Amino acid sequence: MAVLLCCQLVFGVSGNGYANVTAPQAKSMVDSDPALVILDVRTPSEYDSGHIRNAKLIPLAELAGRLSELNKADRILVYCKLGGRSSQASQILADNGFLYVFNMLGGLAAWISEGYPIYVRYSSLQIAINGAEEGGILLVSSGTYHENIVVNKTVALVGESRNATIIDGDGTGNVVGIESNNVSLSEFVVRNGTRGFFSEACNGTAISNVKVTCNGVGTEGICLHDCWFAQICGNVLENSSQGIVLSNSYSNVVSNNVISARNGCGLHLTLSSNNTVNSNAVFGGIGADGNGVELEHSDQNVIVNNTIFDNGGMGLQLESSNSNLIYHNNMVNNSQNAYDHNSSNIWNAGYPSGGNYWSDYTGIDGNGDDIGDSPYVIDGNNTDAYPLMNLFTEGDINHDGKVNIFDAVKVCASYGTKPSDPQWNVNADIAEPYGVIDIFDVVKVCRNYGKIRRYP
Known about the structure:
By secondary structure, the chain is α/β, with parallel strands linked by helices. The protein folds into four domains: 112 residues, Oxidized Rhodanese, domain 1, CATH 3.40.250; 144 residues, Single-stranded right-handed beta-helix, Pectin lyase-like (Pectate Lyase C-like, 3 Solenoid), CATH 2.160.20; 105 residues, no CATH class; 64 residues, Orthogonal Bundle (Type 1 dockerin domain), CATH 1.10.1330. The chain starts with a helix and ends in a 9-residue tail after the last helix.
């Protein structure tokens, strides 16, 4: 009761056991409280035409009979179109012992007038794309859209939930074809196609926080051909022959993806150079062809801070690929951790930053610097001169297995320095742009603060 009284003083007293809030106050609640329950009491057709993200639909006429779907101790924000039905719904909740009920004055009309986003359940994503303006944003409601779409203009598609906003290709073709520059797509499940995504001769593509599930043998999760400046980040890819494929593509970033290709290669670069492959987990390839990462005729790429493990083939295979920089990767329990053929590459970042962790390395660390005293032999003349003795953890500047205050001190002590400066610490240079210790390095330590070294 004390909490409710406080809320009423702040938000406005209804006198009937619930508090009134304005649209800006409601937006602040939505943004600051992930546990907030957002209750839409309009009709299903009104809900489909546009609703607040992750709102639960219980029409006012059904509310009294569906109270068991709600928790009386939760904070519940109630809204309708203009505010009338939400006031009635709030009263029903308060009368039935719900403790923290907030009625949004002015309803969704007030929310929209403030410029706040709403998510729409489209009858067809393709029709929505065709009708969108160049540079527009389509906020897509949860639901399953059975179609193969072609994005042929610069738009952003944002799903309501990565787990519940689904584009299903019904078993054939490219589920999402990209035919324009600067297309972005996030927060979707993309499934049931020959390819999840296919983009050709398009630049600036951004695919993030998407789950891609294909149909097994002969399929590709994300395929870019002749593309530049793409950002493929934070996705989950599974059940395809190849998870991510870059072909004749340059200056792209592939980072923080979880790739389980199963039937083939997790990440394949062919005729592709100057790309950054950073902080991905690639695992679970089956059989001799189940490689983690492959490079063919691909030069000057940076392969850093990836964990490549439990693949039935090669962990990392390079064929006729040169001048690639490969360091701070964890190579664990692959049938063969690496293979470097007909190539000349750099397998470490120098001393004391070190090279990669190899689960089958048998050398010792006589001086306790967390770097093996003898090189790790990869193939023929290719070696990692500074193999790490322990799994690499991003942000662990002093290599003690955890990211803590001592790492924060080290990055701050070398802040603003470059390799020519006496205070330069190569181990602190952990974020782009490389070659200077700046705010991005500090932020990366902070984001990983408290992490401990673990596998995977």
